[in-house]
Amino acid sequence: MAGKSKRPQLLLTSEQSQHLQRLRRSRKAPAREVQRAEILCRYHGGETIAEIMRAVKMTRKSVSKWIERALAMGVEAALQDAYHRPRPPRISEEAKAWVVHLACSKPKQLGYAAELWTRGALARHVRQHAVEAGYPALAQAAKATVHRILAEHPLHPEKVKYYLQRRDPDFESKMRQVLLVYREVAWQNASAGKGGPPPGVITVSVDEKPGVQAIANTAADLPPVAGRHPCVARDYEYKRLGTCSILAALDLHDGRVTARVERRHRSREFILLLKDLDQFYPPGCTIRLILDNHSSHISKETRDYLATRPNRFQYVHTPTHGSWLNIVETLFGKMARTFLKRIRVQSWEELRERILQGIAEINAAPVVHRWRKFEPLETAPNTSIV
User: Could you tell me if 235 and 246 are in contact, meaning their C-beta atoms sit under 8 angstroms apart?
Assistant: First the structure.
């Protein structure tokens, strides 16, 4: 007959008992805490060590360990592992800093041919030079060791993230000028919506989308088949038929697009776009163009044409490398997401016709493009921005 246990009874408050009951039924808590809560609940309920070990499928030593810890240090101490470090770290903080310093340099600076580090190449360099650098603990460092050191910061020397440096010394002033134009257009549109007179200055956003490829299939596309093929099937091979440039002017008042599709993007093509704008808008108004500093916009040929139409066109230039300030870029993004997406044609002329058809569809239901976020600009509505 088994003797009576000499261990004292586990006394729990109502809050502790409710906490253990919730924890033993939890599906989100760590498994070790759920298991220990089960042990403590069963012991508190009067079960013996043998009964508990059979129920939770653990050894007598393990069950006894958590019960004795709860009796000695409390329930919370029994649920959590005590912090311990079996041995001091072999890799010092100075050694880790050396690895980080290497990761922040380029391999070519150390005599290698590569431009960027891979984890394997960095680990190999660390092993080869650890002793002479004074960090012998890294002499056997594996790729995983280097990975863990870099993950602490974190660092990814194998990746490249691109940025665009502002090279225009007048970037801020030019950006402010463009934003003031957008603010004035917003006031004009609000006034026109209330029955005000039409604006004497019509603002259009102008840019070009070059390099649109005319690509032909070498085999016909296969349509989807319900229940068998969920998407269009397309042959991998294709034929290049040349490229085109889309020259577009987006009216910021009503959303209408004036566009041309040309094989090249030169001054003569840009002048043709200006002539289209001149012909479309009323003779008495000024056409204000928001555009970049492309050579075709400011060439001698273009300036000669502008001289024949005095006071008809007015330029507002975006800063250098500031094309994101030009609202017409949103129009090109819309084209790329809609009718230009995965387009295939049989000739360059078909590509031109389909682009013009897509622009006609946009003009059939035009959307006014707005610049919605303005910094606080203390400028009255009638302030000149030119």
Answer: no
* CA–CA–CA angle 179, 181, 186 (5° rounding): 95
H helices within the chain, ranges in order? 14-24, 31-44, 49-56, 60-73, 75-79, 93-103, 119-133, 143-151, 171-193, 267-280, 295-298, 300-307, 328-337, 348-364
User: What's the pTM value of the predicted model, to 2 decimals?
Assistant: 0.66
In the chain, what are the domains? 14-79 (1.10.10), 93-151 (no CATH), 171-364 (3.30.420.10)
| Sign, Cα dihedral of 218, 220, 221, 227 | negative
CA 357 to chain CA centroid, nearest Å: 32
Cα separation, 13 vs 40, in Å, equals 13
The pLDDT > 70 percentage for the chain reads 93
Give the whole-angstrom CA distance, residue 96 versus residue 91. Answer: 7
d(CA 202, CA 45): 84
d(CA 271, CA 27): 70
Quick one: pLDDT at residue 376?
52
Q: How far is CA 209 from CA 184, 194, 213, 214, 245, in A?
A: 27, 35, 11, 14, 6
Question: Mean pLDDT of all residues in the chain?
Answer: 89
Q: How far is CA 249 from CA 26, 233, 255, 326, in A?
A: 62, 36, 10, 11
Residue 382 has pLDDT above 60, yes or no: no
Q: Is the pLDDT of residue 41 over 70?
A: yes
Secondary structure, 3-state, 117-166: CCHHHHHHHHHHHHHHHCCHHHCCCCHHHHHHHHHCCCCCCCCCCCCCCC
Q: What pLDDT was estimated at residue 375?
A: 61
What's the pLDDT at 191? 83
Count of beta carbons in the 10 Å neighbourhood of residue 50: 11
Averaged pLDDT, 201-210: 95
| Distances in whole angstroms, Cα of residue 140 to Cα of each of 85, 94, 121, 124, 137 | 22, 17, 14, 9, 7
| Contacts with 219 (C-beta within 8 Å, 6 or more apart), sequence order | 235, 237
Beta bridge partners of 212: 244
User: Are 267 and 304 within 8 A, CB to CB?
Assistant: no
Q: pLDDT per residue over 132-182, tens digit each?
A: 999 999 999 999 999 999 999 999 999 999 888 878 888 989 999 999 999
